[in-house]
Amino acid sequence: MKKFYYLFKVSLEKTFKELKRYKFNTISNVLFFYVLFMGMFLGMQGFGASLGVSSADMADSLEGFIIGYFLWTIIIMSFADIAYNVIDDANKGVLEQLNMSNINLSQILVVRSMANLLVNLLISIALLFIIMYTTNNWIELKIFSTIIPICIGIFSIFGIGLICGGLALIFKKIQTLLNLAQFFLIGLVTVFPENKFTSGLIPFNYVAGKIFFIVIGENSFVDLSVLDYGIMIGNSIFYFAIGLLVFNQCVKIAKKKGLLGQY
Fold it and tell me: Measuring CA to CA, which residue among 66, 41, 48, 44 is closest to residue 216?
């Protein structure tokens, strides 16, 4: 257990150092998400005004839009972490060395992603406050009640990231697939089936619905039922297990073909 603690600690330090070292890239990422939101926000506001939607109805829609965008930034960063880390490590020539350590490669990537999740949450929350200040649409963000479902559900996103990371080991260039997946991830936080069990079959979708329930409905994590937590945990375990299975199989194929030591 101690080795995972040190791996998490080193990964967290590495992430903060890279954010500081590559300031331009860090600022560019934040600006990209901010500009993208403002473009969609102003477009949505103008579209609503042209249709004669009332200010009250528009405010409700914009509130949900802000929360949806906040969740999307978190899952897009978490999803991309694993796949892009595999590509980056392969480019640097350290992927084979990582695979030779006494910690499984999939475990290294997951612990790294958990460390990055902490940083991504801080960035996303800061971005959320900037967005609320800019748009003057303030939401009572219950940090603790929101973080709990996110931490439960994010493992389903890690599972999808592991699948893409495994494909990156074999096929090397999968940027097109990663770009397409970003549009798929938008649907996870914007489309909610009426049947809760149908929603529970979709990665992170049920969690996103419950976060809307908490933030917009002015509820707390204690208002969620045992069934709600069961569906969220079951969904994460299912997709995370599939992700681990696919990734480990891809590692075996990559080893057999001698693909780990080259890009």
Answer: 66
pTM: 0.86
How many C-beta neighbours within 10 Å does residue 224 have? Answer: 18
Q: Do residues 190 and 69 touch, judged by C-beta distance below 8 A?
A: no
110-141 burial, b for 16+ CB within 10 Å, e for fewer?
A: bbbbbbbbebbbebbbebbeebbeebeeebeb
CA 41 to chain centre: 21
Nearest in space to 161 (alpha carbons), one of 262, 70, 87: 87
The domain locations on the chain are: 2-257
The Cα–Cα gap between 129 and 148 comes to: 19
Calpha distance 178→165 (Å, rounded): 10
pLDDT in tens, 103-127: 888 888 888 888 888 888 888 888 8
Q: Which amino acid is at 163?
A: I
Q: What angle do CA 72, 32, 218 make, to 5 degrees?
A: 35
Percent of the chain exceeding pLDDT 90 equals 14
Residue 202 has pLDDT above 70, yes or no: yes
- The pair of structure tokens assigned to 4 is 């995972």
